[in-house]
Structure formats: structure tokens, C-alpha cells
Amino acid sequence: MGNNDTFDNRNLEVAPCVQEEAPEPEEGKNPWPYAVWLFFGIMIGWGATYLALEVPHGQVEFGDVRDQLKSQMIRNSVEVTDSSETLNKSKVDGGQIYASVCASCHQASGQGLPGAFPPLDGSPWVIQNKFIPAKIILKGLTGPIEVKGVTFNGVMPGFENQLSSEEIAAVVNFIRSQWSNRESDVLTGEEVQTLQKQLSGKKTPWTADELKSP
User: Fold this and answer.
1) 160 with 129: CB under 8 angstroms?
2) Residue 60 belongs to some domain of the structure
3) Is residue 131 part of a domain?
4) Tens digits of per-residue pLDDT, 8-52?
5) Which of 19, 52, 126, 166 is most buried by its number of CB atoms within 10 A?
6) Is residue 187 helix, strand or coil?
7) Is residue 188 a contact partner of residue 171, using CB atoms and an 8 Å limit?
8) Is residue 130 part of a domain?
9) Which structural domain range is residue 116 located in?
């Protein structure tokens, strides 16, 4: 090939198809890797949050942790219910029971009715021994009884089938601490239950003589 045929690239023209070809992508400018990393970041964050919220103490060996949480919630609910029942028992209002059951005879003042119903205010039968009024409320009272120098002779029915042990204890504690009575020896529902079992064989009302016996 002669000198005139020497290849001169200065005169080389670039074909239009080559000029219009899209440039090669440069590293770091492709948006796809960013989307991938964002996806994995979200998944990792979600997984960490799930473990933190759903797994108590960081580990569950068997079963769905939601079953364990449900069981725990049921146990807590039972404990709360038991506590509420105990609290409600301790809130039995002896004054209300007295007003609805006893006041029509013994009066709101505790003075009773002369010649008919003995007073409870200042009565030795009420204040000397907490089990005496509990016995009377359980089984009733019949025959003559002397209260503060006055003899009364009538019949009082028992209430063991109408009042619970807690209600009997509450009304006994009320009459022993009301008016001029200031006794602080509290009768409990459990003590009334024990007394009721001891007296399960008694089928007739008390007499004053029986109550005087030890």
C-alpha cells in the first residue's frame, strides 16, 4: 500500500448509528442496588421489631408465642377476678343489712321497742361476746330474756338461710360498734362459717339460759 493510501483516522467520520448509541452505564449510577438495600433494611428492621415485641425474654422454644401470651392473660384475669371477689366481700355493709333486716324491730337508734323488742345499744348480750349475737342471728331466740333490767319475752327467727356468713359478720360488727357500743373485736365471715358448722345439729332457737352456758 502506497503513502497516499495510508490510513488517516483524522478524516474518519463516525457513523450516525454509533453516535446515537447510549453511553455505557457508569458504576454507582444504577438505581437498582439502592432499592435492593432499602428492601433488605426494611425487612431486617421489621424482623427485629417482631422479635422484640412478640418473644418474651428473647426466646420461644415451642409453639406460637401468642398462645403463651393468651394463657398468661387468662391467668392474670383469674387473679384479678379472685382479688375483686375478696375485695367485694370485705365491703359488705353491715349498716345496710341492719337497716333492711333488723331496724324494723330494734329501731335505727338501737333502742328497740318497749315491751316488745329489746334494745341493742348497751346490751350485754351484744357487747360482751361477739359470738352471742352471731348465734342469735343464725338460729333465732325464744323465751324470756333480760336486757338492762327489763325482761322481754318474744320470738326472733333465725337468718342462717337468708344471710351469708359475710353478711352476718358484717351486721354483728355493726351493732357492736354503733351507738354507744364501741367494741373493736371484729367477727369474720370465716368465724361465722366455723360457728355454723358447729351448730349444724341445732334445730331450735336459742334460749337465754342456753346462751349463758359456756
Assistant:
1) no
2) no
3) yes
4) 555 545 445 445 555 555 555 555 566 666 776 777 877 776 666
5) 126
6) coil
7) no
8) yes
9) 94-212
